[in-house]
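We close this part of the discussion by returning to an individual protein. Part of our work consisted of pairing the sequence of a single chain with a tokenised description of its backbone. The amino acid sequence and the backbone structure tokens for this protein are reproduced below.
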Amino acid sequence: MNSEIQDHSFTSKQLFDNKEIMSSISHIAAQINSTLKNQKIIVICVMKGALVFCGHLLPLLKVNINLDYVHASRYGDSTKGSKLNWISECHESLNGKSVLIVDDICDEGKTLNEIKNYCLERGANEVYTAVLINRAMRENKEITPDFVGINLDDMRFVFGFGIDRDGYGRNLPNLYATPN
């Protein structure tokens, strides 16, 4: 592991441990199962950050799913968002389908909103969104996620459990915030 990230995982504030994260994922799964029961849905994992979250969520879903992914990012190696960069679009047809977008974190909601609009433009009948972390922002968000694991007021940069810091830290089992 990158020594800088390892150092940050020890000096950063742990926000949520793995047990708390897994409990929030179980809660999201129960909500999705209740809302989307008896439906066939396409789950779209937003790479790379949502990979770990999606991997833990899928086995808990009791609906019929087809899995796909998009790789789109406003951050890249930066901690500041910019224009959405599409690296890979969906491979499945979304025409006439119900879609569940799974993303790691919703800050301003710009990325999630663009991906939702992308799905609707590709013919999806309905699009739901699930995020592990929904950050409270001071300004209005572009989208409110349908299913949320953790609501977070902390404005520091978050990493761990799939979310990176400078490309590292995705494999950490807990969620951390960088030092002030």
